[in-house]
Write a structure and sequence with these properties.
mainly alpha; three-stranded antiparallel sheet
Amino acid sequence: MTPTLSVQSHAALFGIKCDLTTHSEHLLAAQCFFEFRKAMEKKKTSLASLTVRQFNNHKNSFVAKVAKCIKEDDLYHKLLMPLITEDPTTNGLKRFILACSTLSKKHTKDLQNRGLASIFSRLVVGVVDAVPISPETIGAIVDAIQGACKEAIASQSANNTLAHSLQDILDRVWSNDMISNNPEPERLAKRARLHERELRIPASSEDGSVEPLEFSQEILNAAENEVLNLNESPELAHRS
């Protein structure tokens, strides 16, 4: 299918209102990012099937790049850290992992020479949506990143503030992701809410005094397993 292009929306591509030298620089910069994007798409495919064992067998180069990320004067820091510091979410973490896994010394040099370093993270966000990585594998990768931060802090080979900041982001992002994918905390929270409700619902006894009511074990289990609608009034039994 022939692509539809417009002069207005592709002014830089066609060199509208700029000289030949500037037009050439624009095209070379676009080609530079295009080459990185191709490598990134290939890496994304491999990440989808990456196992924990495979990652652990080849993690040294990845960990080395993470160590560079927490050195403020390193180009890897300028290119990669904004991907997670400006988007401290699971998606931001996955983009960081993808870009870090893809980035090579040649890429960093070319991106810098073409004037793309300062906008690199925005370009990656603009072209990368979902990054398929299994929960087990991403857990191993997060452990490796945390390990790199701890080692850098212990050896004082990096800015401690940056290393601690990256650790804090990982703790927050990955902990939240684990909770959202694990129903157990929510079941425990429901049980707590039910017990709180138990304390709030009084019942009159035969002598006119007020005593608390309790939910049966059956009702508690039903609520935890999404069977019971907590907005409905279940049968309540007097505490014996």
